[in-house]
Amino acid sequence: ARAVRYKKVLEVVGLTFIIGTLERIVSTALIAATGSLYATPGPGLLLLAEPESKAFLILSSINLFTLWEIGVAGIGLAAVYDRDLPKILVLLLALWLLWTGVMLFPVLFGG
CA 12, CA 14: separation in Å to the nearest integer? Predict the structure, then answer.
């Protein structure tokens, strides 16, 4: 395995932060347009009228910008570390699913 410079990894993270900034801008526009603080750029918009439902909570956690960030991070990390892109994407998606599950668990199951 070749040595990876910290600055290269920092570049990948910086690119994902740009996407996060765009997400904040779009989310702010959605909140202004819908009048709901629960508006997110994803399938949760379909159930915006029912923000307390479990289906809404699950759908609103699927943020299109987050998936975009995962894709960009995966491509960047695969290039920087010279690894197989599908394996990196699976790892990142698994970590995101784990994190999302941990965050949703208390809300969905009252834990």
Answer: 5
